[in-house]
Predict the 3D structure of the following.
Amino acid sequence: MKLYADNILLQGGWAEQQTLTIENGIITAIEAGFVEGAEVAKGAVIPGMVNCHSHAFQRAFAGFSEQGSEGQDSFWTWRKIMYQFLAQLTEHDAKVIAKQLYIEMLKMGYTRVAEFHYLHHEIDGSCYENTSNLANSSGLSTMAESIFKAASESGIGLTMLPVLYQYSGFGAQAANDGQKRFINSTEQFNQLVTECFVLSEQYANTNVGIAPHSLRAVDKQSLTEAVQHVRALDAKAPIHIHISEQQKEVDDCLAHYGKRPVQWLLDNASLDQHWCLIHATHINEDERKGIIATKAIAGICPTTEANLGDGIFPTTEFLAEQGTFAIGSDSHISVNPIEELRWLEYAQRLIKQQRAILANNEQASVGQNLWQRAAQGGAQSTNANTGLLAVGMQADLVVLDGRKTQLFAHDNKHLLDSVIFASQQSPVCDVMVNGRWVIRDTSHKQELESADDFSQLLARLSKH
């Protein structure tokens, strides 16, 4: 197919009157001018955004944990409520939630998601029986297959990250009852990862990495063995890990290892450009510079970090030193890349008491700088051929509704600033993933059916 755009954000910046040729999901040519037979985009075209951090089941939990008492709530009290909630979920429920979530992501401009997947087992913690069509399946991948199916039916690109979770705290503390559905031995986990690679061959536009949950949930030996296993399957497989999200985690790590979490990871794991450190909120200067030196990505989740009261990542210093970042919606209290980027910038403004913090000499537009860097960092974090619009790249793109963007500053140099900081409703009109339209005129073909299934699920869960 061919797609013509009056305005399009290419690798080198904004360009006018360009036609993309797309074959088998890949951009094979970009030509100046209108080419006969091309479809005309209804507004400016920009790269799709990658969501680097998702716990899909938590979308159904959003709104259930906003009742507190006298300022005593924290991440840790939120986590207890979350454990009670997920104790009810079946594999069918997991698919219903993920499909609804992924449709919501697509409608807001996300074209790929990294699913940090740790809900592995039956409600009682036992392994599922093998009910899939996967040859020689152990049942370990039953829940993971629900996620693959949800991504396939919604049309979003998927990077599956099975989570290794073994302990409740530093020093190999035994898992608590709320964590029983997460726990695998290292051998079981490696089998799960292998099965996910087989599933990825069956579902288009997917790939697989791993996610050691956190330094409190794995030890050095299991971390090392899991990394070795996935690297044997794919040398470039993404590796994501929760790190330094809360101050308590830092304090506990210092007490156990004598080192801060990121410093311990830098000293004990071979970080590279395929590692994504999720949150990394509480880091010092040496840790910040260490992340940048290894070319690892910081996976920042501003709306969830704000909702949980985690803290604020040192984005200003990190970007000034050419660090690479991606954004994620994590607990899905918000499913909106525009809001994530707005929070990313506004948090820095509040700390620094300045404006337009995350621009630079090469790119004066905060909005354009953030969108392009987040999209490309997200692509790196998922080892996906996406994140920018250029020949040879996957056709993952978003069309902004010209009827909406004309209502605020919409010259190219101001457009993404207006989208991120001035728009009061989603400006996304159409979304293409891997060369296929999945959102047309703001709608998804399955959104009504999916929403109905999801609302019925919420009604059931709300009774408990």
About this structure: The mean pLDDT is 93. The first strand starts at residue 2 and ends at 10. The two ends are 50 Å apart (CA to CA).
